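The passage that follows is intended for readers who have already worked through the single-chain material. We present the inputs for a multi-component assembly, then the predicted structure in tokenized form, and finally a short commentary. You are encouraged to pause after the input and sketch how you expect the pieces to fit together before reading on.
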Amino acid sequence: EVQLLDSGGGLVQPGGSLRLSCAASGFSFISYSMSWVRHVPGKGLQWVSVISASGLHAHYADSVKGRFTISRDNSKNTVYLQMDSLRSEDTAVYYCAKRPVVEPGAPYYFDYWGQGTLVTVSS
Amino acid sequence: QSALTQPRSVSGSPGHSVTISCTGTSSDVGAYFYVSWYQRHPGKAPKLLIYNVSERPSGVPPRFSGSKSGNTASLTISGLQPEDEAEYYCCSFAGSYTVVFGGGTKLTVL
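Having made your guess, compare it with the prediction:
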């Protein structure tokens, strides 16, 4: 059974940093690209970032480019999201999501999701 | 990229059908056959219902179906059941490795 366990959320002040983790199990982690998607209250879901299975290729939404960094450790079956220079508008539940392919390209959907971790950016 | 437009809420009686629309532009929904739909119950992980406009993953019952016409995609749920009460989100490829989601639709089963 595919399982994705998101963790690392919490309360952080504007301008602060946080690192999210997503521990994967139940599938061959090294064979699939992974993404982060967030649920912003009142605004729905927003795609944040994607990383290839190898970890060599990554892409970001314009809203987080230059502030967030996605990475993965295939020896630990874990994907990370380093979030720096956090803003109030980054407040959301963050989900890691598995993609059905090796690279960030087609097809574009997410076949499994974690349960999410809440990030609150507030002073 | 702007979010795709979904109705805030829809409702239907058990056994009946509902359709949720998802309107984008010629740069996302209208341009690609990479529309997907997700179901989200409060506090739970979202679940993939439909991918590539109309394909169903194994385990998703055939009463969930997807379609697309022009810049608008649709999710139809037939034979409504109480457990279908949830939020539903559409998603489309928008170019350059990015995807855009809809704002979400809350389905109430009366």
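Commentary: The longest strand of chain B covers residues 86-93. The mean pLDDT of chain B is 94. How closely did your sketch match?
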